[in-house]
Design goal:
heterodimer; A: mainly alpha; elongated; B: mainly alpha; 7 helices
C-alpha cells in the first residue's frame, strides 16, 4: 500500500491536475506551460497557507 | 490552398463526437485520435498516474447512490471510462475507507475522472475547430 505524507499527496495532486489544466485551458505551448506552473503554485501555496491558518486556529 | 472557411467545414464534417467518446473511454485517446501526440501523452500519463496512485492508496471505487455525496463521487469515478470498468471487474480499490490515505486515494480517483472529462471535452473542441 502506498502511504505518502499529506504534503507529498498535495504536491502529486497539484502536479497532475496542473498538467491537465495547462493543456486544456490554453492554446499555445508557451501559454500552457505558464498556466500549468501558475496552477501548481496556487495549489501548493493555498495548501501551505491554509495549513498555517488551521495550525494557529487549533492552538 | 485551403481557406479558413474550408478548414471550418473540414473540422465540422464527420462524426465530431468520436474524440469526445474515445477520450472519455481511454485517457488521452481523443487527442491521440487527432494526432496531438504530445498533449495526448501528457494527459494520458497524468490521468493514469493519478488513478493508479488512488488505487495504490486503497481509495474506494464508488458504485452506489445512497446519498447525494456518494452519487457525486460515483459520477466522478465514471469519468475514468474503461479504467473504472476494468478496476471494478478486477476488484481493485477498497470496499471501505479505513485510513486517511484511503480517503486521499478516493479523492485522487474521483478527480482523475473529472480531469479525464475535461480532457475529452478539450479533444472535442479541437475536433470542431473551437480550439487550435
Amino acid at each position: 500500500m502506498f502511504r505518502p505524507s499529506h504534503f507529498a499527496a498535495v504536491v502529486v495532486f497539484a502536479l497532475f491536475a496542473s498538467v491537465v489544466f495547462g493543456i486544456t485551458q490554453r492554446e499555445t505551448p508557451r501559454q500552457m506551460v505558464r498556466y500549468g506552473l501558475y496552477c501548481f503554485v496556487l495549489f501548493v501555496g493555498a495548501a501551505i497557507a491554509l495549513s498555517w491558518i488551521m495550525y494557529f486556529i487549533a492552538r | 490552398m485551403a481557406t479558413t472557411q474550408d478548414k471550418k467545414n473540414e473540422a465540422g464534417s464527420g462524426f465530431v463526437y468520436l474524440p469526445l467518446i474515445v477520450g472519455w473511454l481511454v485517457p488521452g485517446g481523443g487527442h491521440f485520435l487527432l494526432r496531438k501526440w504530445g498533449r495526448g501523452a501528457l494527459l494520458s500519463v497524468s490521468i493514469l498516474a493519478m488513478f493508479a496512485i488512488g488505487i495504490a492508496m486503497q481509495g474506494k471505487l464508488y458504485a452506489g447512490a445512497h446519498d447525494i455525496l456518494e452519487m457525486l463521487d460515483t459520477a466522478g469515478d465514471l469519468g475514468n471510462g474503461l479504467l473504472y470498468v476494468v478496476s471494478r471487474a478486477a476488484g481493485w480499490g477498497a470496499d471501505q475507507v479505513t485510513q486517511t490515505t484511503g480517503d486521499y486515494g478516493s479523492r485522487f480517483i474521483v478527480v482523475a475522472g473529472l480531469l479525464n472529462i475535461i480532457a475529452a471535452v478539450d479533444a472535442h473542441n479541437l475536433r470542431t475547430g473551437r480550439k487550435a
